UniProtKB/TrEMBL annotation:
Transmembrane regions listed in the UniProt entry: none
PROSITE patterns: CB
Domain Core-binding (CB): 87-165
Keywords of this entry: DNA-binding
InterPro entries assigned to the protein according to its UniProt record, in alphabetical order: CB, DNA_brk_join_enz, Integrase_recombinase_N, Integrase_SAM-like_N
Entry's Gene Ontology molecular function annotations: DNA binding
Species this protein is from: Lactococcus cremoris subsp. tructae
Pfam family name, one: Phage_int_SAM_3
SUPFAM superfamilies noted in UniProt: DNA breaking-rejoining enzymes
Gene Ontology BP terms: DNA integration
Superkingdom of source: Bacteria
Name under which the protein is recorded: Core-binding (CB) domain-containing protein
Keyword DNA-binding assigned: yes
Amino acid sequence: MCKEGKMIKIEDIQEGSLWYEVRGKKFLWRLRFYNPNTKSEDKVSITLNSNSSQAKTKARQLLLKKAKAKIDEEVSILDPNLSITSFCFEEVANVWLDDSQTKLKPSTLIQRKRIIKLFCKKFGEQPMSEFTVFQLQNYFNCLKLKKSTINTYFQVMKLFFDFAERMEIMF
């Protein structure tokens, strides 16, 4: 099910590129596709024993099924009956971190979790609809840290708010 609450059909999946990588004596087939839940590109993969044209056709079919399953099983953070303004910072931060898990190196994810944990202490229960530029600027101005650390915090916060905007939690 995608965010609008409709089940997606395999033929409705917007495909990107299909390719394979050699892994020993096997072939790792990968498919890029557009994920309507995250509004971004996503990937799925399977391993087959061949790279023939038949294997390519089979890989495409299996990967599309896998992509459909991935889209259907993802939890959409926007329940149509739930008011967008009811999401607090911490709830959206947890969804963002979950979404980031497959896209980031473990060390980067650990760093982002640590930074978000600090922000949650300050903004955790605050509804997303109540954030202001002035409030955030004031928060960053009051930090007694090195400029490079503040820049890192700012970049993480920017990525977080970009995600919230992409997910239509903030406009």
